[in-house]
Every structure is written in C-alpha cells, then in structure tokens.
Amino acid sequence: MPQAVQHGANLWTIDGALRSAVFPLGLRMTAIKLTDGSLLVHSPLRPTSENAAQLNALGPVRWVVAPSRAHHLYAGDYSKAYPDAKLYGAPGLAEKRSDLKFDGVLSDDAPAAWTNEIEQHLFRGAPYLNEVLFFHKPTRTLISTDLVFNMKAEANRPIGIQLFALLTGAGSHFGPHRLIRMMIRDHRVAAQSVQRVMQWDFDRIVMSHGEVLETGGREKFAAAFAYL
Fold this sequence. Notes:
The protein has one domain: Ribonuclease Z/Hydroxyacylglutathione hydrolase-like (Metallo-beta-lactamase, Chain A). Helices cover 25% and strands 23% of the residues. It contains seven helices and 13 strands. The strands form three sheets. A seven-stranded mixed sheet has the order 1-2-3-4-5-6-7. Strands 8-9-10-13 form a four-stranded mixed sheet, with helices on one face. A two-stranded antiparallel sheet has the order 11-12. A hairpin with an 8-residue loop joins strand 2 and strand 3 (26-33). The model has no long low-confidence stretch (mean pLDDT 89).
C-alpha cells in the first residue's frame, strides 16, 4: 500500500494509479493541513479504505479540489465520503461534470479558508485543461497536475507506459510533453502565466505524474516553458 510521504510541514503526497487499460499511469494526490487543522485534498485518488485511513490520520477533510478539467474522476466519491467537505473545481468543470455539486470555482483568488497559506493561478492559454496551479507558501511547493510531467526512464516499464512515453515524448524529462504543448493554444497568454508563476518563491514541484522534484523547481519550470 502506498504510504503518505511528507514534504515539509503539513504537506503530504499519496501515490496511486490511473484506472486505464491502455495507459496505466501513476497518479498523485496531495494533502495539505491548514492552520485550523482541516485538510485540503488536491486531485483526489480513487478512494480506498487505505487512502481514507491515511487522510483521516492527518486531519478532518474539509476541502476537496479538482484542479483541472482533466483531474476530476474521483471528486464525487470524496464528496460522498466526506459530506461536510466543500468541493472546488477548475473553470468549466461544473459544466463538464453536471452530476456534481460544486461549492466554488477556482480562480486566481484563493478562498478565504486557505488564502494565507496557499496562492493559486489559472494557467491560461490551454482551455482544454484549465489547470489551476497551487503554491503552498510554508513549504515553497508548486503543485500541478498535468501541466508538467517528470517521468524517468526505467527498465521493464509496462508496455502501456512505454507506448505513452513514445507518443508524447514524456519518457525521461521534466516539463510539458508533446500533447500538453499542443493543448497550449495561445503562447502569448501562456507565457504571461509562466511569468506570473515565476513570481512565486517555490523550490519543490509536486505533479500528478512522475517523480516529485524536490529542489531546483523554479529554474526547471522556467526552462521547460522557455519555448513559449
């Protein structure tokens, strides 16, 4: 069972898997304990008794975040499991998931519950994703989902992951892979978003797919989007 990994005070990640017969990619959920003791769950994994036990040990889940139009598969499960939690989604997600009841739409302005600890920005120019990036100030951590990958070349990869790496070019480097670059349709406004993110004093980068980048994040993020 994947164990929660702590990355500085009040920030944890739990790894899981994407249920896909074609591309069995790994997934990552991030949990942040706020100063009031409540837990914010970012990009939730498939709910299991093991995941629930780990989250419950960290604190009461009060906030569930579906941070892009692509990372929302298990948001409804968490709303059922934690009926007192508030669900926030990326712009456009409420229309895509009309089966869910959202309590708020994510934007550049963080909700009052976490604005003192977390800043956020809607990465512009890629409307299919509408990914909202999070910056956890106490741990200097940038939190992303699909905008950047950090997959490492490994021997004996499952054939599905080998195929994904071949199609996207995501096999062994940090940054946006080929399909994500195609989704970034407006390079001018995307470059403005990169400049906005670079105003944050982050060092670590947590992403949904690949290894957590523990240090050097600002430099690698800037280099990854220098093509814009």
